[in-house]
Structure formats: C-alpha cells, structure tokens
Design goal:
The complex is a heterodimer. Chain A is α+β, with helices and mostly antiparallel strands. Chain A has eight helices and 18 strands. Chain A has a six-stranded mixed sheet, sandwiched between helices. In chain A, strand 11 and strand 12 form a beta hairpin. In chain A, helix 2 packs across helix 3. The longest helix of chain A has 18 residues. The mean pLDDT of chain A is about 90. The longest helix of chain B has about 35 residues. In chain B, helix 1 runs antiparallel to helix 12 and helix 7 packs across helix 9. Chain B is globular. The chains are: A alpha+beta, B mainly alpha.
C-alpha cells in the first residue's frame, strides 16, 4: 500500500507545551484515518501540520511521495475542511467553490464545469447563487466540502467535521461522507473527539493523548485489543480492577444462582437495546451490560447476583 | 420601547435640535439676508442674492473645488498610510494591540492647535528638519517646507490619521483568521488572499475611515491657515475671511450652507451603502 501522506517523527511545541511529540504515521491510498483524542491532545495540530498551516519543529511530512515539510499550504495537493467551515462570507456559494480553481488559473470553462460537478456531488446545484449566511448549518458544511473536492486533492483533511451539526444530522452526514469518499476515491484524515464518529467513518483510528499516538489500529482491534488502559477507557465502557485486569461490561454474565464473583445490584440503567447493571462486589462496583433479549435473566435492585466471564475476555492492561 | 429608552431617545433629539438643527436654521435664515452696518450686521431674510453671488464669483467655486481636491488627496494618502498601520496592529500579538492603539490616539491628549504649531517648528526654514539636513551637509540653503501645499497635506494626514486607523482596525480585527487559512489552503498566495479576502471584507472600514477623514478635511481651516501658502485655496479659509475680515455674515452663511450640502451628499451615500450591506 503506497502512502498518500507520510508523517515521520514530526514534533511541534508551543512554548513548553509539546502539542505534537514525535509522531509518525501513514495515510494509505483510499483510506480514512481518524485522529481521535480528548481536546488538547494535539490531533488538530497534527492535521494543520499536514495541511501546511503549521511548520514542524522536527521531522518530515511527505505527500504523494514528495517531501513537503516546508511547502506552504497553497503548494500542497491536500485540502482542509475547517471546523468553522471558513466560507468566504462575501462570495456566493458557487464563487466559494470556484475560488480554489481560479487560484490554479484553470480555463473558465473548466472552472465552471468543475464547480457544477462539485456542487452536484453535495446536492447543492440549486443554491449556487446564495450567500453562505443564507444557508443552514448542514448546507454550509456541504459547501465547505464541495470547495475542497472541486480541487481534486490527494487527501481531504477534516477538522471535527460534525462539530457544528445537530445530533440527528450527524450520523446521516457521516454515512454520506463515506459514500462520497468511496465515489471519489480520495484519502480522508478526520480529526474527532467522538469515538462513535471515528468508528463509523474510519478504516483505522489513531488514538492520541498529550501529543503522542497511543495506538493506531482498526476500530475492532482498538476495542478488542487496546494496548493500555487509556485506550480501553476511550473506547466504550470497561471495568478496570486495581490490579490492572480489564473486562468489557458486555462480556460479563449475570446469574442469580451461581458464578465466580458475588455482588449486590445497586443500580439499573435501562438503555433500550440493553440494560446496564451496577453491581457492588467486594473489590469494586462492576458494570454489566446485558442485551434486552428474551430469556435474559432479569435482576432487580438489591438482588444478590453472581458474575462470571470467560477467561479470554479478561486481559491485563498497563495504565 | 421601554421608559428609559424613550427618555434617552428624547434627550438625543433634544440635543440634536438644540445644537444642530436650531443653529442651522439660524444660519440658513442669515444666508438669505443682506449685510448692513448694524448689530447684528445683517437685515431680515429677503433675497437669494448671496447664492447668486456665490455662483457668479469663480473664487468660491475654485475654493470649493480646491477644498474637495485637497480633502480627496489627503484622504487617499491617509488611507495608504493608515491601512498598513491598522493591518499591522490587528495582526500584532494580543498583548501589544492595546498599547499600539493607545499610541495611535496618544496625540489627541494634546491640543490640536499645539500639534499643528509644532509642525511649524519642524518645517520652517530655521526649523529642525532644515537644521538636520544642513548639518548633514545634504543642503546648503534651507528648503521651503512651510507654507506649501505639501505642508497642508502633511498636516491633514497627520491630524486625521487616527480617524482612519480606528475604524479600519475594528474591521480587520474582526476578520476570522480561518478565512485566510482557507484561502491559502485552496491555493491562494498571501497577496492574492489579501486582495480577494482581506481587502473586500474590510471595505466597510475603508469607507467609514475615508468619510471620517474627508468630511472634516473639506471644511478644514486651521491647517491651511497655519501650514498652507498664499496659493492654498480652501473654503474654510474663505469662510473665515468673509466672516471676520469682510464682516459679511450673510455671505459666509451662504458659503456654509453650500458646504454643508456638499458634505451631506457623501454621508447619505454612505448610509445607503451601509443599508445595502446590511441587506446583503
């Protein structure tokens, strides 16, 4: 697999803060890579380094096989979709989309054709004459997207693409983005703090904390084989015993009759598809997630229950 | 509208009526009178002769045109100097901005007259600039700076620069830096991004700054009087002469009425442009 973007030992500090601390990664052709982590973990800085909006203190960045560590943003064959969308308020939708093409001094007919094509790809053909402030949030996001893809970049860099959208719009937009990516065949790098979003969109996820990459893997591997407690905690619920042993709540069986660990149900959280039981055991309170399927044991608050899990569901994780 | 809002609106109208509309009505009335030796030195309003005289005597026309030309050129020079200043302040680190803005308005803490007089000290034949040039051996005879057209432009640009910088700064400071990053990301080199993003988005500030400089500069009297030469013809000076030297109140009133009309037109245009911007 040839890498579209290769980041090697890149570091960037602001004063004493190491925003990006010697990070290396590759973005494959046609791959969607998510940079996931809490705010301040350096994921946005890493994205801006790829776009050329920041210059690294150390390391190298190559795009499409060419070294672009010092190349300014206007010389890089990647485009960024900003969290605020950064649409030009004084230009119409069509002029926003055509802006990048005019910078490339393409022929007017070509600019026209590609602007229309990009607007069609995001289903905004009818709104080309509108100004950005006359659009809804979702429409603005699509203009920002069209403005990027009109340039036919080697990779699209998306900074928290769903942050400004309503919750119910998010999942639909995530799936639309995926479909668009498949159709265009370009690589995506998505910055997000939302693990669901990362899992929905990405082929691989780089989990970041304090400027470093903790683990970079497929969503399934990250969930099932986290390298440490931090990664495990970031992906879904996990029960962590003081000795470092970790078991996911859905791997724990709950019985009123027999099991390995005895405890008392202190709380029940009904979640529709499943139910989370909080069970106080001698060592700690354990979270147990059971499907609300027929025939499942139903425990009640105050019941004494027994917990058990298969040996391969428990693993020992370093902090 | 609530009670306090109504009261303060009334106060505003009362203020405008007392210090703007009423005096203007008096000036308008005097402009239709004839001058006579009496107290006050004019008769009852009876004639439009002053306006006819204004049109007949080419001196007034030349003075109006001269004023407009000087104001226009000074405004352009102020813009050329003020825009980079405002841009630099808006781009400066946050902790520097307030200090730089303070420096821009610092001259206001001294009297306007004293500041213009200070320029005489710098520009006159035995002034500081000539002394320095002579001691450096660059000139043998003192150069004539004072009482020239150039000195008038210098004075106006100097005096009105803050009025240009402040509205421009307010506009440029609000500009979202992400817009310029997006422009660069889309392939725009810095100059292209400036011309296509920064400049168009700062135009309302340019317009506001230009009007704030242009309007007072047209009626400027002190600067041409103190720094200008005998050939500097500005309407403010003509008005002064009519009023104090010729004691022709009706004539100077007519000059003022025409001046006000000439100035109100760009303001109305400005407001129309702003309304259009608000609608867009």
């Amino acid at each position: 697999m040839s890498a579209v973007i290769r980041v090697e030992g890149v570091a960037k500090a602001y004063g004493d803060v190491r925003a990006v601390d010697h990070v290396s990664l590759e973005v494959g052709a046609n791959e969607c890579l998510a940079l996931l982590g809490p705010s301040g973990c350096g994921k946005t800085t890493l994205l801006r380094l790829m776009a050329g909006l920041e210059t690294p203190d150390a390391g190298a960045i190559s795009i499409g096989g060419a070294d672009m560590t010092r190349t300014p943003p206007y010389g890089r064959p990647v485009n960024m979709m900003f969290q605020s969308y950064a649409l030009f308020p004084h230009m119409s939708v069509a002029d926003n989309v055509a802006f990048g093409l005019k910078q490339d001094r393409l022929a007017p007919a070509e600019i026209d054709a590609r602007t229309r094509e990009a607007l069609a790809a995001v289903e905004l053909e009818a709104l080309g004459a509108r100004k950005p402030h006359q659009l809804s949030g979702g429409q603005r996001q699509r203009v920002a997207l069209a403005r990027c893809i009109a340039k036919r970049p080697k990779a699209l860099l998306l900074d928290e693409p769903m942050a400004a959208l309503d919750k119910h719009l998010r999942e639909r937009t995530q799936l639309e983005l995926l479909a668009l990516r498949r159709r265009l065949g370009i690589s995506f790098v998505v910055v997000t703090h939302d693990q669901d979003e990362a899992m929905t969109m990405a082929d691989r996820i780089a989990v970041m904390d304090k400027g470093r990459i903790l683990q970079i893997d497929t969503p399934r591997k990250l969930y099932e084989h986290p390298v440490n407690q931090a990664v495990a905690r970031f992906f879904g619920d996990i029960n962590l015993w003081p000795n470092g042993r970790a078991v996911r709540p859905e791997h724990i069986a709950l019985s009123c009759v027999s099991g390995d660990v005895e405890g008392v149900v202190t709380d029940i959280i009904y979640r529709g598809a499943g139910t989370t039981y909080l069970v106080r055991t001698q060592e700690m309170t354990v979270r147990v997630l059971r499907q609300n399927a027929r025939g499942e044991t139903e425990a009640h608050k105050g019941d004494t229950v027994f917990l058990s899990w298969p040996a391969d569901a428990a693993r020992t994780l370093s902090p | 509208m609530t009670g306090p809002a109504k009261t303060s609106l009334l106060a505003v109208w009362l203020w405008i009526g007392l210090v703007l509309l009423l005096p203007f009505a008096i000036v308008l009335k005097i402009s239709f009178a004839t001058a006579q030796l009496s107290v006050p030195p004019y008769g009852p309003p009876s004639t439009a002769g002053n306006y006819a005289a204004l049109l007949r005597d080419s001196l007034y026309f030349k003075a109006y045109v001269g004023s407009l030309r000087i104001a226009l050129i000074s405004t352009a020079l102020t813009l050329l100097l003020g825009y980079p200043m405002a841009y630099a302040i808006a781009r400066a680190p946050q902790r520097w901005r307030h200090i730089l803005l303070l420096l821009v308005v610092l001259p206001f803490w001294t009297s306007f007259l004293i500041r213009i007089y200070a320029w005489i000290g710098l520009l006159r034949p035995t002034g500081l600039i000539n002394l320095v040039l002579e001691s450096l051996g660059l000139i043998t005879e003192p150069l004539r700076f004072l009482n020239t057209g150039g000195a008038v432009y210098l004075g106006i640009v100097y005096a009105y620069l803050p009025f240009m910088v402040l509205p421009l700064y307010a506009r440029l400071e609000k500009l979202d830096p992400a817009l310029l990053e997006a422009a660069a990301d889309l392939g725009a080199k810095p100059w292209s991004a400036f011309l296509k993003i920064t400049l168009p988005l700062s135009l309302p500030g340019v317009l506001a700054g230009c009007l704030l400089v242009f309007i007072p500069a047209v009626g400027e009297f002190v600067i041409p009087e103190l720094l200008g030469g005998p050939d500097t013809l500005m309407i403010g000076k003509v008005l002064w002469t009519e009023f104090f030297t010729n004691r022709n109140w009706p004539m100077s009133a007519a000059v003022a009425v025409i001046l006000l009309t000439v100035l109100v037109l760009p303001i109305m245009w400005f407001q129309a442009a702003q309304k259009q911007e608000a609608r867009a």
